[in-house]
Design brief:
- The chain is mainly α.
- It has one domain: MetI-like (MetI-like fold, Orthogonal Bundle), CATH 1.10.3720.
- The protein contains ten helices and no strands.
- α2 runs antiparallel to α3.
């Protein structure tokens, strides 16, 4: 019994470490003042150095500070969009599982419709219709990323409704609301948490890609998509660091969040924690 317990403890420790690293990056970006990323033409286009580990952009702004600030902005959008999208998924998934056949068919048709359109294009259309900016981007991401989790929640609820303890509760006269609160929702929390974390990297990547294409955050906003979009003008001049290093930081952030989601899944699932 000691070996599985030790494996579970290591998984939990790794999950806490990853969460601490992500929280540190987020807090560090929020603490950077706007004055710190102001540009100086005397330092424009400098290659990576000890003074500027990520180099500077064409306006002389420190790219490491801009990248950290941009990551915190992307994480803010990702957190908000993931929470909204996961909440929609839970509501839609439960409604599909416990509703009538027509409700279930209508919801599944809607899910197929949303999933049939590439997410990036759909986010761009929604963001453009709402005037772009933070509001349009947030609504676009939140409205397009709930489908897969909703189907998972629906399947889980259908399985739980067939369990003996749910049937016993019905025989004892418990209402549907009581069964939902005391039997269904507690069992849905692991799927909700893991799905929420795994929605996060998708939201960040779509925020960066849509902002890169000019349909997301405004140009004056320090975000990774904006940084990468600006760097495209200067790649031919040899300023490779302005695109490669912020892009690598974004990829590393997404990989860390994905790894965190995997560790949380293993912590919540006793069987996978012993793998």
């Amino acid at each position: 019994m000691r070996a599985p317990a030790n494996r579970r403890a290591r998984v939990l420790a790794l999950a806490i470490l990853l969460a601490a690293v992500l929280a540190g990056v987020y807090a560090l970006g929020l603490l950077i003042p706007e004055e710190a990323i102001a540009g100086s033409y005397l330092q424009a286009g400098q290659a990576p150095s000890p003074a500027h580990p990520f180099g500077t952009d064409a306006l002389g702004r420190d790219l490491l500070l801009r990248t950290l600030k941009g990551l915190s902005t992307s994480m803010t959008v990702g957190i908000a969009a993931s929470l909204i999208s996961a909440g929609i998924a839970v509501l839609v998934g439960i409604a599909s599982a416990i509703g009538s056949r027509r409700v279930d068919a209508g919801i599944n048709w809607g899910i197929d419709l949303v999933m049939g359109v590439p997410h990036t294009i759909l986010v761009m259309l929604i963001s453009f219709a709402l005037g772009r900016g933070l509001k349009g981007l947030l609504v676009g991401i939140a409205a397009t990323h709930w489908c897969s989790l909703a189907r998972l929640i629906r399947a889980e609820v259908l399985q739980l409704r067939g369990q003996p303890y749910v049937a016993v509760s019905r025989k004892l006269g418990k209402s549907s609301a009581w069964i939902l609160v005391h039997h269904l929702l507690p069992h849905l929390m692991p799927q909700f948490l893991v799905g929420l974390i795994l929605l996060f990297p998708h939201a960040i990547l779509h925020e960066a890609s849509v902002s890169f294409l000019g349909f997301g955050l405004p140009p004056e906003q320090p975000a990774i998509g904006i940084i990468l979009s600006e760097s495209m003008r200067y790649l031919s001049a040899g300023q490779w660091w302005s695109a490669v290093l912020p892009g690598a930081a974004l990829v590393l952030l997404v990989l860390l969040v994905d790894r965190l989601g995997e560790q949380v899944r293993r912590v919540l699932d006793p069987w996978s924690a012993q793998e």
